[in-house]
Amino acid sequence: HGGHQSEKVIWECLKAHPREITIIALGPLTNIARVFKRDPSIVELVGDIVISGGTAQATGNASPVADFNFFCDPAAARTVIREPLTKTIVPLETSSQVLLGFELLDQLPREFSRAGKLLRQMLPHAFRAHRQILGSEGIWLHDAVALVAATNPELFDRTTVAADVETSGELTAGMLVVDRRQNRQVRPSIDLLVGCDAAAVTDCILRGFAAAADAT
Question: I want to staple 216 with a disulfide (CB 3.0 to 4.6 A). Which of 29, 33, 40, 114 is the partner?
C-alpha cells in the first residue's frame, strides 16, 4: 500500500471484506477514528476490533490514570470507544500480567534467521531499559499480549462493561472511565479483559517468535 494513508487502506480493506476483518489496534486510535468519522457506515463492516490500551484500574504509564495509547489521542479513543460495535479492550493491568523474564533470551530463535537476529539485537536493550528505568526484572510486551487475545481469546477472562474516555481533564485526559453503576444509561458494549493465563500467553508469544524465525 505504498503512498496510501493508513486510514484509506483500512477503509478499502473493510469495503472489500465486509465483516471479515478483525482490527487489532496496537497504538493510538487516531487512524481508526478518522475512518469512522470519514464514513460512519463503515463501522457496520468491522468484523471485530481488539484494542491494546486503557486501564480500568486507573494506574497508567503515560499519566497516573492513562496508558500511552489513549493518552496520545484521547479524542480518537473516545470516538472508537463510543461506537456501538462490540470491542475487546486489553487494558494495561491485564497485559502487565505477562512479564517475560531474562530466561526469555535463552529461548529466542537462533541468529541464523533474520527474525532471530533482530530479536537478539533488540530485546537485551529492552531488558536493560526496564531494569534501569522501571526497576523491573523483565519486560512487558503489551502489544504481543493483545495479538494473543485476538488469536487465542480462550486464554483470557473478561467482563462486559460500559465505558468512555476522558478528553478534557487537566489531570485525567485519556483515562478509561468504566461505568460500574447498576442504573447506567449506556448499554455495555466492551469486552474488558480482566485476567489471563499468563503462562499460556507467554507460550503463544514464544511460539510466535519461533514461527517468525522459520519464515525468515
Answer: 114
Backbone angles phi, psi at 156, to 5 degrees: -125, 145
Query: Annotated catalytic residue: which of 1, 125, 130, 142?
Result: 142
Question: Distance (Å, rounded) from C-alpha 216 to C-alpha 114?
Answer: 6
Query: 185 burial class (0-12, 13-18, 19+ CB within 10 angstroms)?
Result: exposed
In the structure grid, which three cell numbers stand for residue 132, read together? Answer: 534501569
Q: Which residues contact 34 (CB under 8 A, 6 or more apart)?
A: 7, 76
End-to-end CA distance of the chain: 22
- The whole-angstrom separation of Cα 19 and Cα 42 is 10
Instruction: Give 121-178 pLDDT, tens digit per residue.
Output: 888 888 888 888 888 888 999 999 999 999 999 999 999 999 999 999 999 999 999 9
- pTM exceeding the 0.85 threshold for the entire prediction: yes
Whether 1 sits among the annotated catalytic residues: the reply is no
- Report residue 53 CA to chain centroid gap: 5
